[in-house]
Amino acid sequence: MTKFEDLGISSATMKSLKKMGFEEATPVQTETIPLSLQNKDLIGQAQTGTGKTAAFGIPLIDKIDNESNVIQGIVIAPTRELAVQVSEELYKIGYGKRARVLAIYGGQDINRQIRALKNNPQIIVGTPGRILDHINRKTIKLENIHTVVLDEADEMLNMGFIEDIESILAKTPTERQTLLFSATMPAPIQRMAEKFMKDPQIVRVKTKEMTVPLIEQYYVEVQEKSKFDVLTRLLDIQTPELAIVFGRTKRRVDELAEALNLRGYMAEGIHGDLSQAKRLSVLRKFKEGSIDVLVATDVAARGLDISGVTHVYNFDIPQDPESYVHRIGRTGRAGKEGVAMTFITPREKSYLGVVERTTKRKMEKMKPPTLDEALEGQQKAVLEKILQSIDSNNLQFYKQAAEELLEQQDATTVVAAVLKMLTKEPDTTPVKLTEEKPLPNKRERRSGGGGDRRGGGKFDSRDRKRGSYKPRQGQSRGGSEGGKRYNNSGKPRTNSAK
Ligand SMILES: Nc1ncnc2c1ncn2[C@@H]1O[C@H](COP(=O)(O)OP(=O)(O)OP(=O)(O)O)[C@@H](O)[C@H]1O
Ligand SMILES: [Mg+2]
Questions:
Q1: Which of 120, 130, 144, 159 can bridge 69 by disulfide, Cβ–Cβ 3.0-4.6 Å?
Q2: Residue of the nearest CA to atom 1 in ligand 1?
Q3: Which residue owns the Cα nearest ligand 1 atom 14?
Q4: Distance between CA 182 and CA 192 in Å, rounded?
Q5: ipTM more than 0.90?
Q6: Which of the listed CATH numbers 3.30.390.80, 3.90.420.10, 3.40.50.300, 3.20.20.210 matches domain 2-205?
Q7: pLDDT at residue 454 is higher than 50
């Protein structure tokens, strides 16, 4: 482990890092910060949750000229929630230097943003469409930019933001520094990215596997119609602190969230059709723990850093291996452990191998739990709560009532009654869940020779555009989000994105 002091960081920024509780630099920070401080272009690839934000954020902030009131750096992120999160982290890193950071994203009142832009922010963090909008209105000027960062670069180049990104880059000085970060960087995307970079250094934190070793990865073979019962049983047995359940489509997410609520779980859904205010409020509730299951499309798969997420459930298998890596990476962050469960229907079995070959890690098979096991799980959770309550030693007030009760009944009966009352017995309230058709059983496209699997492992080509979604077989309603967006040539699509 390397100390931040040894990386050439200013004392003002060191002060912020101390306040944030960062003691030592993570490997990706150790490798990229010195290069970045020398203004080198670079592509940084490191596992989820290993501190890539600070890896680009620390040098970005450190290079800000405090005396200057112009925009000097810009960070582009694929989703609004991620833009907000990254801006918050940059704000913290910039505390020592009093750097001014502003988040600019779609779905928020543009006039409010225009007013905020008048306060001379030095760093902008935003989503591509809204940044471009401000550039066109001349409310953002990029001629003094020295650094452009693409966070989740592969996703943005993949998901149809390429034209927007290129337009933004074209308005920045050519001598700028360009930084790309992601946990995944498929070869075709990397090749495309290099076109707008100067002799980029590729920093890949060497690891055996693409996913985080601290995440236990399981798959459960389950029929489509049994998925929901298996999910609730797993939730009952595994008792996550916070859990994210990923579904394939917006409709799926809505139905799942509703079904979970009917069965007594505190769940809410997040996807791109909700208003921005709703999206942010759902996420806030999840962070605060007032809901404990977040049901999401891939809109929440990338970059989000929510502490307390102990379990990720892929209710529907993701459509490409990169999405798998990012989804499960919402747990097991910053050295913590996590559990990832992936449901696989018999007809989607071929997708398992594709994911495993890309991540270079095998998932362990888990049998779907029975109703009795779910009940046992809930009972165990109650027992733990009781033991915790005994430990807290705050029972004086209840002891007299306990003694009176024990005069009438034997101790085992009393405790059994209490256990029964506290245990959430598996609920069979009927729920409505439209069946998803399985993904097409297409064979994996091999990336011609050389054994480079990084760019391969693509499942399928999908002929659809964001914003003008064409239903394909099995997805006639609901609108799909995220997932595969390559066209047949293996090159990313160039859709205009919203
Ligand atoms: N040097 C450090 N010491 C302690 N904690 C750190 C350090 N660097 C980052 N962190 C914390 O680790 C967590 C994960 O960091 P971050 O979100 O930047 O990961 P990431 O690599 O960008 O992941 P993803 O690929 O999912 O976007 C954050 O809560 C961050 O504050
Ligand atoms: Mg990140």
A1: 120
A2: 25
A3: 49
A4: 15
A5: yes
A6: 3.40.50.300
A7: no
